[in-house]
Amino acid sequence: MNPLLLTDGYKLGHHKQYPENTTLVYSNWTPRKSRVEGVEEVVFFGLQYFIKEYLIDQFQQYFFQREKEEVLQEYKDYVDAYLNEDYDVSHIGKLHDLGYLPIEIKALEEGTSVPIRTPMFTMKNTLPEFYWLTNYLETLISNSIWLPCNSATIARKYHQVLCKYALETNPEAIDFVTWQGHDFSMRGMAGKDASILSGMAHAVFFNGSDTLPVSYALKKYYHTENVIGSVNATEHSVMCAGNKENELETFQRLLQIYPKGILSIVSDTWDLWKVISEFLPKLKQEILERDGKVVIRPDSGDPVLIICGNPESENELERKGVVQLLWEIFGGIENEQGFKVLNPKIGAIYGDSITMQRAEEICERLKRKGFASTNIVLGIGSFTYQYNTRDTFGFAMKTTYVEVNGEKRNIFKDPITDNGTKKSAKGLLKIYREEGKICFKDTCTEKEEKEGMLETVFKNGILVKEMTLAEIRSNVTSETVSV
Questions:
Q1: Is residue 69 domain-resident?
Q2: Are residues 370 and 401 in the same domain?
Q3: Where residue 355 falls among pLDDT bands split at 50, 70, 90?
Q4: In 3D, which of 388, 480, 467, 483 has the Cα closest to residue 223?
Q5: CB atoms within 10 A of CB 212
């Protein structure tokens, strides 16, 4: 589809609505509020994807490289029917004649943790006759970027929690944390694009991911290969196909198919406690002799109680929970911090109904029971990454500066009926660090606007600055691990 059709319908008339002789429109992208308790900074991520996928690839392939007459007729046919009028497409034709997007984007580095109400990037037109283009692109920008920023910020919170407990209970395994949070979200996301955007954001902090297309996307958009990974794992259909009566044989057959490496086996197709208490002791020697690890995967119920034990249960196995039961069968070591670490031949993963609160509670309960938090891997699913909106962090793109008839105008919005959340910045902007904190100044001079942390990343159809995932990760690592 012609990417100029990827916008809100009300944008179609705005090129006529700006004051006559408008020559410049300057806007910014900002998280205006936080609906997540304890989160006052948002991780900036996803702009490079947007630039490569839309501003470069799709605009070239589906707009500039197509015949002008074809593009204009298609655009006019859609818009005439949509607005029920004879729509003038001359401004679209001029853009096609130009052959590139006359836009400049100046941004912070991706991976930067940006305080609420602080702009992440600015955007303006570079040629006066295309003043309308800046905010025409707002819809597509918003549609593409709020989700990866959300998911990166939420992944950061998970990473902080897992790092905190790893440092307290098993600091030697701190590097394991990047595999302890595993992306299980793809099947529950709103389509392929959402899966990839959120999955790449997850990969800013974690290597574990079952969202396979993220591997391709990271290579294409961030020049990064072989970062995410997963393991051989079963699903319920595999276990069911072997019949309930032959479940032990299914386990035995799987161990024969995979004599080495990590093997994750879903274990609650019927009776999790029977699998652990009856099957695993029978398979103990075979598991210990394998060149790798067998990972037991419960998949139903309350993950906190199943992993850590339910002290109120009348069933002894349920009172102990998965981790303690695995310890009693396979043993392990007690580390210098005094916490139990399971034998490396056995492990556990839980990937259903995990939330931030449950992740923290699981780590805390394991700690209280004397077990290292690194004994469990958590699958982070679509409830975590999909159950959010643009309003989770109040993202918006707003114009703060225009030039009309040569007059430089600092503009802003401040609705009297709002509580201040929607009040925008004013004029040109400068982002800078002061005593280690990111700050911003509005109503800047042109000289001030050129200073500070915002750097040109896209200008006139060209990606000026490119980042790899490793560089993005370097922007988040120190502040995350030190929590």
A1: no
A2: no
A3: very high
A4: 467
A5: 12
Distance CA 422, CA 425 (A): 10
pLDDT in the model for residue 478? 53
What pLDDT is recorded for position 479? 55
pLDDT above 70 coverage of the chain, percent = 99
Q: How far apart are CA 80 and CA 78, in angstroms?
A: 6
Query: Residue 481: is its pLDDT beyond 90?
Result: no
The answer on 302 and 228 residing in a single domain is yes
Q: Which of 135, 126, 136 is nearest to 24 (CA)?
A: 126
**Confidence check: pLDDT of 33 > 50:** yes
Contact 393, 200 (CB under 8 A): no
Residue 130 sits in the same domain as residue 37: yes
**In this structure, is the dihedral angle defined by the CA atoms of residues 240, 244, 247 and 249, taken in order, positive or negative?**
negative
Strand partners, 396: 30
242 Cβ contact list (under 8 Å, min separation 6)? 249, 250, 253
Residue 483, pLDDT above cutoff 60: no
pTM (global) more than 0.90:
yes
CA dist 191 and 382 (Å) reads 12
pLDDT tens by residue, 315-347: 999 999 999 999 999 999 999 999 999 999 999
| Tally of structural domains, the chain | 2
Say if strands 113-115 and 121-125 run parallel, antiparallel, or are unpaired.
unpaired
Within a domain: 321: yes
Calpha distance 275→251 (Å, rounded): 9
Cβ 279 vs Cβ 245: under 8 Å: no
Residue 369 maps to a domain = yes
Judge residue 444's burial from the number of C-beta atoms within 10 Å of its C-beta, 0-12 exposed, 13-18 middle, 19 or more buried. Answer: buried
From residue 334, give the alpha-carbon distance in Å to each of 90, 180, 327, 464, 470: 74, 20, 11, 52, 34
CB 103 within 8 A of CB 137: yes
- Residues spanned by the domain of 110: 19-62+102-136+394-481
Domain endpoint, select from 386, 403, 428: 386
Point out the domain boundary residue: 386, 408, 429: 386
Of 5-9, 168-172, 330-334, 435-439, the range with the lowest mean pLDDT is 435-439
| Alpha carbon distance 149, 46 (integer Å) | 7
Q: Are 220 and 317 part of one and the same domain?
A: yes
